[in-house]
Specification:
The chain is of the alpha+beta class and 95 residues long. It has one domain: Aspartate Aminotransferase, domain 1. Helix content is 24%, strand content 37%. The protein is built from 3 helices and 6 strands. It has a 6-stranded antiparallel sheet with strand order 1-2-3-4-6-5, covered by helices on one side.
Length: 95
Amino acid sequence: MISFERVRKLCHSLDGVEEKLSHGEPTFFVGKRVFVMYSANHHGDLRYALWCNAAEGAQEILVKSDPQNFFVVKDAYAVTRAKAQRKSSRRSRLL
């Protein structure tokens, strides 16, 4: 499972990052722009996800390479699912 504390630490290591709640979830901003949102069982959906901007073309590559862990939300976003019962060394390297 993705450690929220690890996500928080990485986000706060960047200049100008501010953490706020958005839609009830911890969200990281630079100025007025969101760059990472962490979702933990939002509305009881049993999913833990890290929402972040994806470079052009990255979204398609991520989803095609690992559809169990990446899914499309809307243009320019890719989300990684974290499952409590499964650890992925590839996902760990991404974080």
